[in-house]
Design goal:
The protein contains three helices and six strands. The protein is of the alpha+beta class and about 150 residues long.
């Protein structure tokens, strides 16, 4: 799961966050790959995540993008440490094609890391590498005050 630059232990910790966070677990997200400034998360097809007719709900796509961007952001800081806290500042989602009766995969790439703000590009793909959605995200990671 980990590529060069992240320890296998830290990659496993990031995967565990996705696995145990109630909303992520509810949607069925699974971290597939992670490296510095990059994350790839799969959202398996589930009828309960659709608008009907097997079409994935836009809210599920946005949630997948938000989670994938956040995990990519956390590759730049220590997730789960009482020293840091983080949250999404903004997420812009562009829906490009429907995803029907298929798994989707999101990939987030770090564009720039400032002192607190992490700028990311996030893309969602369906079967056959069909681009389903694209967005930009700003995530904020701050050191807690003592």
């Amino acid at each position: 799961m980990a590529r060069e630059g992240l320890s296998p232990e830290y990659a496993a910790r990031l995967a565990k966050v996705v696995e145990v966070t109630p909303f992520m677990r509810h949607l069925g997200m699974r971290l597939e790959e992670v490296s510095p400034g990059y994350a790839r998360i799969r959202l398996p097809f589930r009828p309960e995540n659709t608008t009907g007719g097997g079409v994935l709900h836009g809210g599920a796509i946005a949630s997948l993008m938000d989670t994938t961007g956040a995990i990519a952001g956390w590759t730049t800081a220590e997730i789960g440490s009482p020293r840091y806290t983080g949250s999404t500042v903004s997420l812009t989602v562009n829906y490009l094609a429907p995803a029907a009766n298929e798994d989707v995969v999101a990939e987030a790439r770090l564009l720039r890391r400032g002192r607190e703000l992490v700028y990311l590009d996030v893309r969602v793909f369906g079967e056959g590498d069909k681009l389903v959605g694209q967005g930009s995200m700003i995530y904020r990671i701050v050191e807690r005050k003592e």
